[in-house]
Amino acid sequence: METYRTWLEVRFPDNDGRDDAWQRYDQVVNPYLSMAPASESQYDDDYIWLPGTPAERARDDLNEALDIVIDEQYLARVVREGTMDVRVRLLENAFGEAGEVVAVCTPTPQQKAEAYLSAAVRGYDAVRSDLRDRIRIARHAGVSVNSLIDAAASRVDADEIHALLEADRLSEAVREVIKGWPDQEGRTDVVVADNNSVHVLLRTSFSQEMNYEEMCLADDSYGYEDCEDGDWWGYKDGVRDAEALLKLLTAHYIVTRGNAPATAHDLAPKDPHQPGHVRITLRSADELMPTVS
């Protein structure tokens, strides 16, 4: 069966405005759809239909890779020197070595424009998120609310700052409540989302993480769905931990997941990469700082 290897390459204009030589982006990119054998029309497990020709596979790989290459280390150079060219070359992969080029794909002007726009939006979101964090830190340091509003004028409006600081106070109160739950490994976290909602996260313990990795290496099994019966890595232990933490939280707050009351399965970590999470809201303004016994 034929397999293919994807090379992602970029090219910058030189100082004279002419195109410079193509250079490999970092290293050989792990192929996306082109990783599948050419003779197979779908993955056995996921039933995802694959395009049938090398050219179609190259186009799909380009679409997958375009945002990545524009959003990472070359972006700073793009800012200095202008838009770079991007292309994907799909090569035959014989005995682990890249062979003859079977397809070359370059993005359309629209694809490039959309990729640069999406990178700019992500960059803007990251800067705005950092600004929100700085506002919270400054408030903790004693800067007045009016000064914060003036400093962030035209960037973050006053209503959002007030809502952010209120959510921050709630998050601090929730942290105090969580201190009543034994957490020697620091598995919990309280975060304020971009919409000023407050969430509690619960991660796996060290032993659960090690058991999970051993399970994956031994059985090629991933995800908590495979472990419900045998509980090979300790998912049920996570549910029991979540039950105790959830009981503590619901004594003080409304705890939800989506539009429904949260369950222990919502708060239990699904695997080391997917912590459980629930949303915390006040029963009333008077319960912002509950009394913790």
What can you tell me about this protein's structure?
41% of the residues lie in helices and 17% in strands. The protein is an alpha+beta fold and 293 residues long. It is flat. It starts with a strand and ends in a 12-residue tail after the last strand. About 10% of the residues have low confidence.
| Oligomeric state of this protein | single chain
Radius of gyration over C-alpha positions, nearest whole angstrom: 25 Å
Shape: flat
Helical run tally: 8
End-to-end Cα distance: 66 Å
Share of residues in strands: 15-25%
| Biggest β-sheet strands, sense, barrel | 5 strands, antiparallel
Number of strands: 9
Structural class: alpha+beta
- List unreliable stretches of 5+ residues: 27-50, 223-228
The succession of helices and strands, N to C, reads EEHHEEHHHEEHHEEHE
User: How helical, in percent, are the residues?
Assistant: 40-55%
Overall pLDDT score = 78
Instruction: Give the neighbour order of strands across the main sheet.
Output: 5-6-9-7-8
Structural domain tally: 3
List keywords for this structure.
293 residues, alpha+beta, single chain, flat, five-stranded antiparallel beta sheet, four-stranded antiparallel beta sheet
